[in-house]
Every structure is written in structure tokens, then in C-alpha cells.
TrEMBL record:
Official protein name in the record: Uncharacterized protein
Alphabetical keyword list: Repeat, WD repeat
Top-level taxon of origin: Bacteria
A Pfam family hit: WD40
Ranges in a coiled coil: none
PROSITE patterns: PROKAR_LIPOPROTEIN, WD_REPEATS_1, WD_REPEATS_2, WD_REPEATS_REGION
Species: Rheinheimera salexigens
UniProt WD repeat ranges: 154-195, 195-236, 239-280
Alphabetical list of PANTHER family matching this protein: POC1 CENTRIOLAR PROTEIN HOMOLOG, WD REPEAT-CONTAINING PROTEIN 55
């Protein structure tokens, strides 16, 4: 179950001391908090899941609610994993046993599927909704090509999958799991290109849409950035905490920065080449929250000097950072 870990991570966050810095702007998206959220690569859209509003799709440029979706009528919403394609054409949403594809242009559903075995752990969707990637609790990863109906089952992991990412064209996948591995693999052949080992469970992976970098992080204190053309490590994120979990990751378009979010309210920006932390913030908590914490669900670069985050507080927040090239 994901939720016990969710609450444990909130409790672990209590010891961290960060200097408070106010966001430039705040937008309330869910009054009573959210389960999960995803932001598009260009920070134009966000999709937020909550009991209160189901699955809500937001235009962040105008802070306008565009669509409200649900997997099943007359039941509580438990969608906990979502993704938006790099070209903003489709959104993919998943609960434990089902996943659905939605067209951004008109909000209509393009498909609904159910897993017969195992449960969904994480999802990704390619441009034009052409390929879906489903990480599962039994260690399998399913790559689906909708036009042909081809379903490729990647069996390169031996234990539960925790995080998945896919290149915009759907050709490459990065998957991490409880077997202490992150695998970069070819979705045509299912052959592993690189396997990145960690000393504990791999809890978060991310791919740079420009095809330069991969990010892998484990459940303890190792977070690394890789050159996916050579398989060589570029940097290791530098932090002193004995445990640092990441719940959101995004590379900047120019490849200089990495933005991360954590279950401890911490939002940070890092230098990709050195792994040095450049700035950090704490996202807001909802009123009367006990404990007073929040999980950063998603982060994206709004411009070359601003980030936008979505957190479990139900609030989208805009943050300013110092870009040395400005």
C-alpha cells in the first residue's frame, strides 16, 4: 500500500529545518488536499486528484479548471498516479487496478483499461497518447502501443516497481523498483541499455525530455544524474540528511537545473553538473493540517527564473529562483 508510506514520510519530515521563503503566487486547487498531481513539462497544465473533486485538469496559465474526470461513477476517487504527455495532447490517470487516457483538446476519454493481475504503481504517456507505460506491483512493466495493440511486458525487474518515466516518443523507458535497480531500456526490443544500481530501493526516476539525462534516487541518501548517451554518472546530489526521499523531479529545458520535491514540504533546485543544491523552499500546508506538512506531488519550470509546484495541500505555488545566466 502506498498510503502508509505516504504518512510515514510526512512524519519523517518533521526534523528538517528550512528557511521560510514566501511563494510569489498561490492558487487553491483543492480545499481539503490532494492525493496526487502531475504538471506538464511546459507548466501549462496540471492534473490533480482528490476525494473532493475527483480528477481535476487545470490550465495553469489562466488558473482555470478545464475538466473534471472520474474512473467510475458513484464511487470514491482513488486515482494516485497521473502523467501528461510532453506535447500536452493526452493525460493518463491510474488507480490501483485501472488506468484511463484522456484527450486534452476536448477532455474526452480515449480508453479505459483494467489490470487482471498486480496493481498499478506508476504510469507515463508518450506524445499523441501513442504509447502507455504501466509500472506494476509484481515487478512487471507494460509498454502498450495503442495503434497496433502491441503489449510488451518488460521483465527486467524482480520486485515491485516504484517509479517509471518514458521518452516523449515512447521509444525509451526508465524504471526503478524494490530490487535496488533502475533500468533504462528500449521499448521496441525490451533490451536493457543501462542498469543503474543503488544500495536500497529505487523510489524515483526521471528522464530529461531532450534525451540528455536520467535521474535515479533510492530510499536512503543516494540521488544521481546520469548521461544517457554514455551511461556515465554526471553528478550525485549533495545533501547531509541521512534520508532524502524525492516525490517530484523535473529537468530544466536548458539542462542546467534539476528541480525536486519531497514528502517533507521541501522544494529545491540543483546544479545538474555539480549536484550542488542552489536554493530551497517549503511548500505551504493546508489550514489546521496535523502534522503541519505536505507532500510535493509535482514541480515544473514556469520560466527561466520561476518554478511552479503542486502539493498535497491542494495549492499550486509559484517560486522565484536565481538563474545565474540571467
Amino acid at each position: 500500500m502506498k498510503y502508509p508510506l505516504f504518512f510515514l514520510l510526512i512524519m519523517l519530515s518533521g526534523c528538517e529545518k528550512l528557511l521560510p521563503t514566501a511563494p510569489l503566487q498561490q492558487f487553491l486547487h483543492v480545499a481539503n488536499g490532494s492525493y496526487a498531481a502531475a504538471i506538464s513539462d511546459d507548466a501549462q497544465y496540471a492534473v490533480v486528484s482528490s476525494i473532493e473533486d475527483g480528477i481535476a485538469f487545470w490550465d495553469l496559465n489562466n488558473n482555470a479548471l478545464l475538466y473534471q474526470w472520474q474512473h467510475q461513477a458513484d464511487t470514491d476517487n482513488y486515482v494516485f498516479s497521473m502523467a501528461i504527455s510532453h506535447d500536452n495532447s493526452y493525460a493518463l490517470t491510474a488507480d490501483q487496478h485501472t488506468f484511463a487516457l484522456w484527450r486534452v483538446a476536448d477532455g474526452k476519454n480515449s480508453g479505459f483499461w483494467q489490470l487482471d493481475a498486480a496493481t498499478v504503481r506508476d504510469v507515463a504517456v508518450s506524445n499523441n497518447g501513442a504509447h502507455l507505460l504501466i509500472g506494476k506491483s509484481n515487478g512487471g512493466v507494460q509498454h502498450i502501443t495503442l495503434e497496433s495493440g502491441r503489449r510488451l511486458e518488460f521483465l527486467g525487474h524482480t520486485e515491485r516497481i516504484n517509479s517509471v518515466a518514458m521518452s516523449p516518443n515512447g521509444r525509451y523507458a526508465l524504471t526503478g523498483g524494490n530490487d535496488y535497480k533502475a533500468n533504462l531500456w528500449d521499448t521496441k526490443s525490451a533490451q536493457i541499455i543501462y542498469s543503474f544500481s543503488h544500495p536500497s530501493r529505487v523510489t524515483k526516476v526521471a528522464l530529461d525530455p531532450e534525451g540528455r539525462y536520467a535521474f535515479t534516487a533510492d530510499s536512503q541518501d543516494l540521488a544521481q544524474i546520469w548521461d544517457i548517451k554514455t551511461g556515465e554518472r554526471i553528478s550525485q546530489l549533495q545533501f547531509s540528511a541521512r534520508q532524502q526521499i524525492f516525490s517530484a523531479v523535473r529537468f530544466s529545458a536548458d539542462g542546467r537545473y534539476l528541480a525536486t520535491g519531497a514528502p517533507s514540504r521541501k522544494l529545491a533546485i540543483w546544479d545538474v553538473q555539480t549536484g550542488k543544491e542552489l536554493q530551497q523552499w517549503r511548500v505551504s500546508v493546508k489550514t489546521n493540517s496535523r502534522p503541519a506538512s505536505a507532500v510535493v506531488h509535482a514541480v515544473a519550470f514556469l520560466s527561466n527564473s520561476q518554478l511552479i509546484s503542486e502539493s498535497s495541500s491542494g495549492i499550486a505555488e509559484v517560486w522565484e529562483f536565481t538563474n545565474e545566466s540571467n
